[in-house]
Description:
Blueprint: E1 8-16, E2 22-30, E3 41-51, H1 53-60, E4 71-72, E5 76-84, E6 94-98, E7 113-117, E8 122-123, H2 130-153, E9 161-164, H3 170-182, E10 185-189, H4 196-202, E11 206-208, E12 225-230, H5 234-242, E13 244-252, H6 266-270, E14 274-277, H7 285-298, H8 301-307, E15 308-312, H9 316-324, E16 331-335
Parallel strand pairs: 9-10, 9-12, 10-11, 12-13, 13-14, 15-16
Antiparallel strand pairs: 1-2, 1-4, 3-5, 3-7, 3-16, 5-6, 6-8
Helix pairs in contact: 1-9, 2-3, 2-7
Amino acid sequence: MSPALPDTTRALVARSTEGRKYAVAFEDLPLADLPRDEAGDVLVRISHSALNYKDALAITARAPIIRKFPMVLGIDLAGEVVESSSADFAPGDRVLVNGYGLSETLWGGYSQFQRLPARVVQKLPADFTAEQAMQIGTAGYTAMLCVMALTDHGLEPGRDAVLVTGATGGVGSVAVSLLARAGYHVTAVTGRPEQAGFLKDLGAAEVASRDDIDAGGRPMAREAWAGAVDVAGGKLLADVIAQTKYDGIVAACGMAGGGELNTTVYPFILRGVTLRGVDSVMVPMARRLRAWDRLAAELDRDLLAELSDTRDFADLPQLGADLLEGKLKGRIAIAL
């Protein structure tokens, strides 16, 4: 017999305050108040969540991530189904959710229990524990989506050199490890030179600073890499595009360095460079499943453990601030 469910769930909740601000605090929410979906939903006992850049922005109220209040934060979760009104899931199923509007329009994963629309839930790959899945989280899953963009374009290990910006972060560190393990020559770009050893341990062949890849404002410069994963946007993305080889591809998935892009059509027309935007929030389920299947097959578990840390639920407010201040590296899972 399954243990009786509690009356409440501990959650990290954002509530609106005067003006356009909001306050974030831990609360004990009635389980009966968790939202329901008429099309079918599942109640999940959440064992782990994750900390991503987007989570940090929401926790610290530094960007308008949240679209309605009150909101339970957390864009990732993994755990076990305890109730289901959907034919696709049954109590005992191990499941995960990445994105799909969690922490924006749907209550998210920073809660010990959450009721979710069945359409956003997927089975946890058998090869992963819930903790490992959240060590990967949206950031690692996004990294795989970027790797898929490069490989689907035709890049080949052993032949093509690739570049990864923001390489010590959640997306960048997983992208470096995936690409290096596959056999690509990886240049890891970071603004933290003291982390060069960490990046070499992930498999980077070279570690470069942002100044090292400065294109001097030119829209086209010396061709240096066939593909790139960029989390920065802004000037750094323009520099990356300027040095991408003929028929190369840049997978852009972030804007940590800014949302503007000052370049010209020249690299796209004269060199046939592809700029591929990578979204992780509303990706169709078939592509999500493909990404997680590839993570299960290609991600080094020992390396995942080395680049990850699991922290306590209570630490989240401070961790959000630390991430934005560049004090963290690799992936952070949260034990609920």
